[in-house]
Write a structure and sequence with these properties.
The protein has 2 helices and 2 strands. With about 70 residues, the protein is mainly α.
Length: about 70
């Protein structure tokens, strides 16, 4: 998704829930409409997309990093 804050300029405060989907199926429109915020992962212009497991891993690591910095 091209709009929304980037993953790396957002502060995450648990509890959290993420909706992550692949390009083929995508996220259901009702889930998007009910979402509080959309995030994007900035990528090199040479990269078309990331595997959904890579995207989810980046999300979880950023949450961990942010929470552990505040301890």
């Amino acid at each position: 998704h091209k709009s929304g804050n980037t993953l790396f300029n957002r502060r995450f405060i648990p509890p959290l829930a993420f909706i992550v989907s692949n390009e083929g199926e995508g996220v259901d429109l009702t889930e998007v409409e009910q979402s509080w915020q959309l995030l994007r992962i900035p990528m090199s212009s040479r990269v078309d997309s990331l595997n959904v497991s890579v995207s989810g891993s980046l999300l979880m690591y950023e949450v961990y990093r942010g929470v552990s910095e505040n301890d």
